[in-house]
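Customer escalation, tier 2.

The customer says the design service returned an amino acid string that "doesn't look like it belongs to this structure." They asked us to rerun it and document both sides in this ticket. The original structure tokens are below, unchanged.
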């Protein structure tokens, strides 16, 4: 935690000068700002139905009207937009760890650039959910992979790929093994062998699916799932069991269709 030493150093200095009163000293503004986020889970009293009440910072989880995930229609709406996913390199080095809620991979360098709606986003991390969070015509898939992107101003966009049981997808072993190792491990992923070459997608305006559930997040959900072997799925399911937020009302939102292409940069 890089913040802690900076907070403690002035307090320690103050103790040396004053020689008293340090134990009862009120926390500094910086210490309050660095307070850890409220604990949340996928079941029980800290579960999704109560996320909005666990912390003022999580309010949007409860009152937000454009929350994710949602149930998607069986048919993808006709394509009205295109999205280019450009791979900087065929493979991406990085590291993976158990966040306490999922297994997650962080690329060491910008691995993919995604161009959507005239904006450019870079991949920041990849994690998974079991079963899927988005459902199609009411049915969940076995897993869902979230490629969380950010633009230069820090705005999020999530590319979601559903995972169904079937043949193992080449390249997913590296993610599955690293994400479920239970400790921080180095990993090299080949996104070219994970992402489908071209795919129709659903797109809509939603939110992060975990607290603080921040809104104004464009979603791109590829309609074609990738397949994973039973062994791959079992490893993912074993780490944290069911880690999926239930679907939210669509409300006033509309779901559009698009077409994604994956290419090398
Ligand atoms: Zn997610």
């Amino acid at each position: 935690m890089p913040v802690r030493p900076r907070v403690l150093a002035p307090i320690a200095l103050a103790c040396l000068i004053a020689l008293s009163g340090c134990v009862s000293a009120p926390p500094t503004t910086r210490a309050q700002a660095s307070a850890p986020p409220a604990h949340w889970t996928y079941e029980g009293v800290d579960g999704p139905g109560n996320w909005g009440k666990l912390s003022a910072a999580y309010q949007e989880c409860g009152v937000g009207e454009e929350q994710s995930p949602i149930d998607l229609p069986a048919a993808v709406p006709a394509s009205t937009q295109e999205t280019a996913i450009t791979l900087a390199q065929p493979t991406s080095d990085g590291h993976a760890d158990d966040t306490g809620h999922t297994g997650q991979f962080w690329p060491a360098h910008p691995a993919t650039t995604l161009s959507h709606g005239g904006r450019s986003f870079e991949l920041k991390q990849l994690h998974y959910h079991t079963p899927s969070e988005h459902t199609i015509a009411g049915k969940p898939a076995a897993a869902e992979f979230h490629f969380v992107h950010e633009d230069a101003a820090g705005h999020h966009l999530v590319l979601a790929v559903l995972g169904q049981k079937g043949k193992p997808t080449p390249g997913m072993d590296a993610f599955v093994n690293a994400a479920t190792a239970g400790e921080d491990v180095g990993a090299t992923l080949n996104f070219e062998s994970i992402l489908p070459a071209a795919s129709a997608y659903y797109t809509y305006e939603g939110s992060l699916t975990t607290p603080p559930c921040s809104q104004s997040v464009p979603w791109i959900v590829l309609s074609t799932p990738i397949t994973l072997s039973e062994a791959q799925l079992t490893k993912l399911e074993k780490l944290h069991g069911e880690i999926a937020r239930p679907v939210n009302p669509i409300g006033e939102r509309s779901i559009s269709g698009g077409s994604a292409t994956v290419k090398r940069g």
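Tier 2 assessment: The sequence is consistent with the input. The radius of gyration is 21 Å. The chain is about 20% helix and 35% strand. Sent an explanation to the customer and offered a walkthrough call.
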